[in-house]
Amino acid sequence: MTYFSVSNVTKRFGGLVALDDCSFAIEPLRTSCVVGPNGAGKTSIFNVITGFIKPDTGSVVFKGEDITLATRHERVGRGIARTFQNLQLFEELTALENVLVCLKDESANDPLTAIFRPFHTNAVLRRKTAEAAALLEQVGLGHKLDAAASSLSYGQKKLLCIARVLATNAELVLLDEPTSGLAAGALDAMVELIHKLKEQKKTLLVVEHNTQIVQRIADEVLFFHRGHLMAQGTPAEIVANEELGRIYFGKGAGK
Amino acid sequence: MNYFLSFLILAEIFSIAALSTNLLIGVIGIFSVAQAAIMGVGAYTAALLMMAGVPFPLALLAAVLTCAAINVLSSLPSLRLAGDYFIITSFGTQLVATAVFINWQDLTGGATGLMGIPIAEIAGYSFASSQQFALLVTVILIIVATSFWLLMRSPHGKLLHAIRLNEIAAVAAGRKVLRAKVGVAAVSGAYAGVAGALYATYISFIDPVSFDIHVSVLLVTMLVVGGARTLAGSIIGPFLLLAIPQLLALVDIPSTVVGPVRQLFYGVILIAFMLWRPQGIAGRKL
Prior knowledge:
- The complex is a heterodimer of chains A (255) and B (286).
- Chain A is built from ten helices and ten strands.
- Chain A has 255 residues and is of the alpha/beta class.
- In chain A, a hairpin with a 2-residue loop joins strand 4 (57-62) and strand 5.
- In chain A, 45% of the residues are buried.
- By secondary structure, chain B is an all-alpha fold.
- Chain B is built from twelve helices and four strands; from the N terminus they run H-H-H-H-H-E-E-E-H-H-H-H-E-H-H-H.
- In chain B, the strands form two sheets. Chain B has a two-stranded antiparallel ribbon.
- In chain B, helix 1 crosses helix 10 and helix 1 crosses helix 11.
- The termini of chain B are far apart.
- Chains A and B meet through helix 2, helix 3, helix 4 and helix 5 of A and helix 6, helix 7, helix 8 and helix 9 of B.
């Protein structure tokens, strides 16, 4: 059984073809980087996989089940979660609260329980607070638990995004440009964190522009161009492909 | 003494209504200007049942359940309509409710309203005097305020804030946003039902004007002045704004202009707070 696959997915926005008959499969526990020039369809394929846009045609299958029409929260429940290129944090909440509201644990998550079972709710709150703190510790934000998300540096915000996606307990984690805009130190911390996620047996799908980072983290690369999957292979195979180099870096590149 | 108790009772009833408005506008970000209409449904429900001989506790319960259901229904468009568009929708809900209160004469008594609503009585104990009724309303306000506080400090309360701040992020985290909105609208409606039922039995007379758009806007103003999202703000706002008519009564102005002057005061206060302290007296930054 294929772990995860996208088959013949096409998505048009008016005259613009965002995704053009895309098909690929991903093996579990591997890190696949999605690369390609701007407008290649990288974020669009993320949006299709996580249910933020519905494809015009094609299907998405996860662990043998067709999830093409599943709601967004159903997909998270099945174990697929994502981060966003533009972060999408709860800016006014603390780092701890940002993670706490993303925890998969649904207990005491309704108004009647909160009002009529206060002691139980309190116990759940304590447990969730501890879990959220542990996740923040894991991503290196243990010293920022009570800081408002808006007060964090850009690099810290990106780490907070990872903590939130981990809180959902997803096994297939989609990271949309986790290293973009990061300074050298923060960039190394992020790469180290991605390696940690691999050790925790997460399957990763990562949109990444930096080819050096791709070579440091990727087991395989999916190369997109104009909404079409041009190639899928190891980083070495993709780098060696001169045509892809020309598309990505411009005319004459790779020579 | 009765003068003060009457102010206290009304301010406490409006505090319950403001908590209802706070849950929707302040906490989850559904900007409704129809909460007076919901409160009115509670008032008419309780009044009609009590006038038919139903005991106060049962009438109160019926008002709570009816308003919870109506508030969920009237909040449903907010699931598809963002911000400003929903304000217009809720404005429409308010106008429709007032039209129903005026025109369904067989049930509501039309523009003249319902008179002779019995005084609250629980297990044979009548809350006939102002002191007794003040005690009843205070106890109920404490219960409602405690439930609000418990909700806000729970994991679910944090989720409600998160949904207001960034719905996309909440959905991406696997949260059931629709369920959360329906839940909070039900609780908010229940609070409005309590406020409406208490108002009807205390004043013993209700008419469509008691729950018209002015009252809805007054509730929003109370929230802005007191401070959205906080428990204290929902209580400070009603006490302050309901004190204004009492203070105006002390000033020697013709009775014909008291109403417009009061509206003018509310308007000026609302604008002043929006300009200089948009988070309100007790509120957090908006």
